[in-house]
Write a structure and sequence with these properties.
The structure is a homodimer. Chain A has about 475 residues and is an alpha/beta fold. Helix content of chain A is about 45%, strand content about 15%. Chain A has 15 helices and 11 strands. Chain A has a 7-stranded mixed sheet, sandwiched between helices. In chain A, α13 (about 360-380) packs parallel to α15 (about 455-470) and α14 packs across α15. Chain A is globular and about 70 Å long. The mean pLDDT of chain A is about 95. At the A-B interface, α1, α2, α3, α4 and α5 of A face α1, α2, α3, α4 and α5 of B.
Amino acid sequence: MQTITEEQSKQISDLMKDFIEQTINLYDTLPMRPVGCPADQKTLAYLEKLPIPNQERPLSEVFREMLQDIYASTLFAQHPRSFSCIPSTASLLSWMGDVMTSAYNPHAGCQVNAPVAALIEKKLIRWMCGLAGYPEESGGLFVSGGSIANLTALTAARDAKLASEECKDATIYISNQTHSSIAKALHIIGFCKDQIHTIPTGRSFRMDLSALQAAITDDIKRGKKPFAVIASAGTTNTGSIDPIADIAALCHKHNMWLHVDGAFGASALLSKQQRKKLARIELSDSISWDAHKWMLQTYSCSVVLIRNQENLVCSFAAHPEYLKDAENTEGCAEFWDLGPELTRPARSLKLWLTLQAMGSEKMGHVIDHGCAMAKLAEDIIRKSPGWEISSPAQLGIVNFRYAPDQAMPENALNQLNQDISKKINESGFAQVFTTQLLGKTVLRMCTINPETTKQDIHDTVARLVRIGHACTMPFTLSA
Amino acid sequence: MQTITEEQSKQISDLMKDFIEQTINLYDTLPMRPVGCPADQKTLAYLEKLPIPNQERPLSEVFREMLQDIYASTLFAQHPRSFSCIPSTASLLSWMGDVMTSAYNPHAGCQVNAPVAALIEKKLIRWMCGLAGYPEESGGLFVSGGSIANLTALTAARDAKLASEECKDATIYISNQTHSSIAKALHIIGFCKDQIHTIPTGRSFRMDLSALQAAITDDIKRGKKPFAVIASAGTTNTGSIDPIADIAALCHKHNMWLHVDGAFGASALLSKQQRKKLARIELSDSISWDAHKWMLQTYSCSVVLIRNQENLVCSFAAHPEYLKDAENTEGCAEFWDLGPELTRPARSLKLWLTLQAMGSEKMGHVIDHGCAMAKLAEDIIRKSPGWEISSPAQLGIVNFRYAPDQAMPENALNQLNQDISKKINESGFAQVFTTQLLGKTVLRMCTINPETTKQDIHDTVARLVRIGHACTMPFTLSA
C-alpha cells in the first residue's frame, strides 16, 4: 500500500525546505526574540479539543499547526539568555546531524545493521575515554541522557562489587548536592533509601572528605558493606566538583567503585584551562557525560564511560536466537551487550559531524567562554549594592541573592528572590530560576551557551537588580 | 563567541535543502535499490584513520563525507524487502517530525519547558490507553524503546507488589519466546536468574497456561512469592500472542502483576481486523508499545502504558530543589516523575504529526497489510516443494524452512537454511535472517513495511527457492 502519494512527497520536500530556511533564520535572530513564547490559552484549548483524526488531513494545514501552535510555543532552552536548569547549547550542526540520522534511521544496536555508525561511535568513545585518561580496556556507550548513563554505570558497579546476597547490606555514598537521578537509579536497581548515605558538603559545596571517611568506617563497624561513592564533576546547583583524587584514594583503600557523575561537568575535559579541575578523574571506575549539555548537541546525546568495558558486558550481555545472524564474528561486544537498550538510534553521528566541522579546540573554547560568563556575572553582582554571592562561579554556574536589608526575615528574603525570578521569566528577556542553598532560596545562572555575550550578562544582571529594587519599593513597579 | 559564522549558516541552509531533495528521492527509489550498501573496506579504513580534528574543516567536505561514507553505507531497515529482526517502518512524515522537533529541541521533562509538547504527549497517551481499554486513572510515558518501556513497567510492578524484604523470594514468569529485554530489565532491577521461571510454549508458541499454573502453585508451596507474569503480544520470533485473558485471570487470582510486552504487537490495536487477537489486554497492569516498530516512526519512539499512573509516580518521583520553579502548580505529575529519565526529547510530536496527516484508519490498514503480506508468503511457501512452514503467519511474521530431503541430518538442514539466508542477504535484493525454533534453524520474514508489495513477497520467496535449489545442487551455483 502507498502511505504517501507522489504529490505528498513533493509537498513534504517543499515544506521542509521552507522549514530549513525558517529555522536558520530563527537561530540567527534568537537573541532578539523572547526566551520563550508560551502557548496562549486559546491555542492550548484548540489543541486540547483537536482529535486524532480517522481520515487524513491536508499536510500543509498539519504542518502550519505543528509549526505555529506546537513548536513555536516552546521555551528556547538554547536561547543565549536561557540561564535556568542546564540550558541547551544545541547547535545548527547537531541539528544537521539529526536531520541526516533520522532520514537514514540506522539501527545502532549492532554492527551489521550500521557498520559505519558503529565505527564512529567506537571512535568517539575511545576519544572520550582518552580525554578522561582511561586505559585501553575502557569503553562505553551512547545513551539517551545522564539518568540512563548513571543507571548503566551503577548497575555495572553493583554487579562488579556485590554478590547478590550482599546487596541488602551494601551502602552507597552521595553528597547533598548529588543529582536526583542517582537516587532514582539506585532505587531502580534495588537499593533502599536507608542504604544511601548523604554526605554533607563544605562551604564550596564539595563533598566533605572526613565525613565520607567517617561514614564508611562507621558502616564497616556496623557490618555493612560500603561499595560505591558517587562523586559529582559539576553539580547542577552550583557547578561544584567533588575532590575526585581524595575520594578515589578512599575507594581504592576500601575496594569501592567510584562513579563520577560528569553529566554536566565532564565536558571541562575539552578545555586546556579547565580540565585540571577534574584532575585524577582517570582513577574513577565510570563516568557519565552528557554531550547534549555542554557539547552543543540536541537531546538525547549522552555517554557512559567505563574503566573496564568487560563490566558492562557482564551486566548487560544477552544472546537471543533471532539476533544470531546480526552478531559480529570478531568476538567483540555489540552495543546491545553494553547497556539497557537493544534497538537504539545512532546518537553519536551528530556529535561526530559537529566535531569534524568545528574542531575540538573550538569546543574547548566553548567551555572557557561559559566559565568566563559566570565569572563576569559574579563580578557584576559583587559590585551591586544589596546583592550577595551565594556560591561563586564554578564551571559556568553562579548563585546569588538579593538581600538589601539584613533585618528582613529569612522567609521574606526567600520570597523576594522567588519574586525576582518570576518577574524576569515573565518578561521573556531572560530565564533565571531559583534554587535552594543552605536552606535559602537563591538565584542561579548557568551561562554555558556559547552565543551568550558579555552584553547579555550585563543586561540580565542589570534587569535583575532593577526588578529587585522595584520589588522592595513600597509600591511595587512592574519589571 | 560565534560558533557558526554567517557564511556557514548560509551553507548549512543550502546543504540541508539539497539533502531534503536527495532524501525524498532516496525514499521514492528505495524499492529499486539494494537493501543495504555495506561500507567497503577502503571507506572503513579511511574512517578508522580519520582523527577528530583540532581545527575546523570545510563544512561541504564534512557533509559529503557524512553522506557518502557514513549514512549511505547503512542497511536500510525501512527498505520494503528488509524482512529481518523487526524492520523499520519509518515514514517521511516521522522524519519531518524529527527535523522539526530537533530544530526546536524542546525539553520534554516537564510542562513549563514545553507546555504544548506536554499536552500532545498526554493526548497521545490517553488515546493509546483508550485503544488498550484502560480506565481513566491510567497513564504512561514516551521512552526511547521497548527495553526501557519494559524496565519502567517492571520497576513499577516490583514496587507495587513487593516489600523490599520480599524481593529475594519473589518469582516472575516469562515464556521461552519472551523478548530478551525482559530478562535484562529484571536483572537490572535486582532479580536473579533463578527467580525467573521460563514457561514452555505450545505448538503455536503461546505460553502454556497449565504449565504456568503449575509453576505458580509449586512456587507458592516452596514458600516463594509469585508476583508478575510477562505476556507477549507479538513475540519477536513468530509473532505469537500469549493467552492474555487466561493469564490475566491467573494473575487476578494470585494478586500478580500482568505486564504485556506489546513492543511489536500492541499496534494491532489500531486494526479493526486484528485487535480482537489482543482481547482482554485491558486486564493487564502495564503494556510496552513501540511506535518505531509498526507505527511508521523513526527510532526512538516507544510508549509504556500503565493501568494506574500512580504506580509510576510511586516508583519514579523525585523532587530536587533546582527543579522547583519548573514544577507545575496543578499537582499533576511531571514526566520526570513517571520514568527513569529527567531530560527527554519530545518523542511524541512526530507520532502526532504522522497521525494528523495520515489519519488513524490508514495506520490500521498498515497493520492489516503487514499481516496479509505474511499470509501471502506463507501461502506461496506452502506450495513450494521441499519447503515447510515452521510457524504460520502471525501478526506479520512467518517462519519456514527448506527441507528438500527428510533423510538429511538435522545439522545439515540447519546449515542449509543458514546458507540460504546468507546468500540472499549478500545479494542485496532482500534481507531474511534465520532464527531458532524448537531447536531448528529456520528462516524468518517479518513483513510489516507498508510499502512491501505482493510482488516483493513473490520475488523474495522465488529467490529463496532458487537459492535453496542451488545450494543443494552437486555444484553450487551462485544466487
